[in-house]
Amino acid sequence: MNIDGFQAGWPALIIVIAASYLIGSIPFGLLIGWCHGVDIRKTGSGNIGATNVTRSVGSLAGKLCFLCDFLKGWLPVMVVLAGFAPETAGRPAATLPAIAAALAAVLGHMFPVFLRFKGGKGISTGAGAALALAPLPLAATAAVWAAVFLASRYVSLASVAAAAALPVFTVIFAAAGIGSDVARSGVIQIFFTAIGLLAIWKHRANLKRLAAGTESRFQSKSKP
Asked: Measured between alpha carbons, how far apart are the two ends of the chain, in Å?
């Protein structure tokens, strides 16, 4: 792994990556549910993500969960990028270390050590990592998510569409020469493809319900 320009050195980078996984493993949805006297693993879909928190606890709690899960992906990448010399942070030397932190955070969310590796589906945390790595493709992907959700009211379908769209937009923006060297690197495209496929795999039960016509449309709990 090339870390030329990383001012803190290898030991600090290894600590950041390990910490990224542990941060990603924090089950904010479960904690927020407990604060409201609800174990969200036993309500709704049983998922610890923002959608089930919204359904089981309320809109405000769901937004808080989304923000916390989003920051789990954004913050570790920003910490790694901040550790590079300013002239290096936007260049390929920073790509692999930043992706390592992003991947650790996303895997922590999906397979948290604190919950016996049974976690969320990675959309919110992946979006946070994408904002730090490639904000323009993420913006286009967010538009796809919103369009699919508004048309269908299925969060799962919108999330699967977004997971498939992000690597496509990354390739398109890179081909057009838009974005930083990090955002346009081939390894970023591979990374987004990999986490996109993993997120789709995590939605396999939702896809089966969508095919069977039994998937629930989004509906927030009435209380805040």
From this structure: 46
